[in-house]
């Protein structure tokens, strides 16, 4: 479960990018975070994966309370979170297989457990034929599928995606969305910041709309625009 209480984020330059944020996300939910450019979506996402520390308030993911967590606990908390970025952030010198395996190696997974799991997730995202390719040899949609495979390979409880379809054409974006829906159906919580109106309207989930650093709408089965 994710819990945010009275969260406020003020950047060093004085900009208050998030205020009065109170939110609970139950395990297995799919939540879109929408809003215009500059609304605070990225700030929200960075607070969630502890890239930013809030100026005020508390954030908890499962048993980890970010404000009281010791630095040595941070890697354990991070294992419960998989992150997908708009620009993929794959390691260019590693193959598809290696990019995904690396995520398991860094948390010291026993070598014998790595290969079957990497092959399993790459199959799930439809890339079992491209294990030896390098990121530069893949389309944008394929690269994003590798990055989703990497995000889920350690079986996180939460996947956080920041504009995952932002660089993709509509058809490719649809394929990515189908994969994220499948990830969610396995019980993984998905939090996705997006501008993609069509996705939000066609793949209906909870919608959190942010404007000026505040949540202005929180709807269980929301659409991109407000209901008339
Ligand atoms: P969004 O992702 O919805 O476009 P952001 O979270 O990036 O919005 O930005 C919210 C507000 O915080 C904006 O006014 C932005 O200019 C400001 N902001 C974002 N990052 C920083 C930063 N590192 N330092 C100062 N202000 C920032
Ligand atoms: P094939 O394509 O003939 O089935 P393999 O199944 O042996 O070949 O390997 C498929 C891909 O997985 C290859 O790109 C291989 O380099 C990669 N691979 C297999 N095991 C590892 C590993 N432990 N670390 C990195 N890459 C691996």
Could you characterize what this model shows?
It is found in: Cell membrane. Its main location: membrane. It contains seven helices and ten strands. The protein starts with a strand and ends in a 9-residue tail after the last strand. By secondary structure, the protein is α/β, with parallel strands linked by helices. Helix 5 (140-152) runs parallel beside helix 6. It is 32% helix and 26% strand. The strands form two sheets. Strands 6-7-8-3-9-10 form a six-stranded mixed beta sheet, with helices on both faces. The structure holds adenosine-5'-diphosphate (2 copies). One adenosine-5'-diphosphate is lined by residues 95, 97-98, 101, 115, 131-132. One adenosine-5'-diphosphate binds next to helix 3.
Summarize the structure in short:
The protein has helices at 41-48, 74-78, 96-105, 111-124, 140-152, 170-185, 197-202, and strands at residues 2-10, 16-25, 30-34, 56-61, 64-65, 81-85, 158-162, 189-193, 206-211, 214-219.
């Amino acid at each position: 479960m994710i819990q945010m209480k009275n969260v406020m984020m003020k950047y060093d330059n004085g900009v208050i990018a998030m205020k009065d944020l109170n939110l609970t996300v139950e395990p297995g939910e799919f939540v879109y975070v929408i809003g215009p450019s500059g609304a605070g979506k990225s700030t929200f996402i960075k607070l969630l994966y502890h890239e930013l520390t809030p100026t005020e308030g508390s954030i908890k993911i499962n048993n980890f309370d970010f404000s009281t967590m010791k630095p040595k606990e941070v890697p354990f908390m991070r294992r419960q979170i998989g992150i997908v970025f708009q620009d993929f952030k794959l390691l260019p010198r590693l193959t598809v297989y290696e990019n995904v395996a690396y995520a398991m190696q860094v948390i010291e997974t026993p070598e014998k457990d790595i290969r079957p799991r990497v092959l399993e997730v790459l199959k799930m995202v439809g890339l079992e034929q491209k294990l030896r390719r390098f990121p530069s040899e893949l389309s944008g949609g394929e690269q994003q599928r590798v990055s989703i495979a990497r995000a889920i390979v350690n079986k996180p409880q939460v996947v956080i995606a920041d504009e995952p379809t932002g660089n993709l054409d509509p058809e490719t974006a649809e394929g990515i969305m189908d994969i994220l829906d499948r990830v969610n159906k396995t019980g993984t919580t998905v939090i996705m910041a997006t501008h993609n109106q069509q996705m939000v309207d066609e793949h209906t989930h909870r919608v959190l709309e942010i404007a000026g650093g505040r949540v202005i709408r929180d709807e269980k089965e929301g659409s991109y625009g407000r209901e008339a």
